[in-house]
Amino acid sequence: MSERLSVTTPAGSFSAYVARPAAARAPAVVVIQEIFGVNRVMREVCDRLAGAGFLAVCPDLFWRLEPGVDITDQTQAEWDKAMGLMNRFDVDAGVEDIRAAIDLVRAGPGCSGKVGAVGYCLGGRLAYLTATRTDSDASVGYYGVGIENYLAEAERLAHPLMLHIAEDDAFAPKQAQDRIVGALKDHPQVTLHTYPGCDHAFARPGGAHYDAQAAAQADGRTLAFFRRHLG
Description:
This protein is α/β, with parallel strands linked by helices. The chain has helices spanning about 40-50, 75-90, 90-105, 120-135, 175-185, 210-230, and strands at about 1-10, 10-20, 25-30, 55-60, 110-120, 140, 160-165, 190-195. The protein has one domain (about 1-230): Alpha/Beta hydrolase fold, catalytic domain (Rossmann fold, 3-Layer(aba) Sandwich). Helix 3 (about 90-105) crosses helix 4 (about 120-135). It is globular.
């Protein structure tokens, strides 16, 4: 079952896509979008999580710039629009919107009280910041871009964090990856997985760098992680 809900903040309201599991109450996962908005790929992530027994919610984090962005990675015009949105995006405000979504979902009647987060690309960076700045019970980031600029925040990590790192990621070069791994590999709350031969967005179905085997491995690890920490 899918629906939309409205999240209200002091700055305004924005929508979120919701996919509900069969159970009346379940742990929840906030799905943090890529630079293409709450598109089919993100909705399908929510639907898969709901099929696995989680209440999944994907908030529209571009609402301050353009509500309802829903584009793909298939044309240059869409890439240009997505990159423009990313470059104008206020990361700090985005994390506050994620916090508002977590609070709303946690208080809702369909939630068990446990709420995690998973993000991709830009959302991977936001998943890391969700782990450092909110009370998310468990967070997962896929090929996050720019995490190396926020490593000082790792001291705030109070709940589990998992990061999936594509070793050939053109948007997160090896030097950045080395900084991330060096800073986080011994942190008691952090689990790191690296994927040799994989480029950015290896888990995006239909994308140029999609790797079905690596995606299945990462998704399996993510589900096990959420079941352990949210179940």
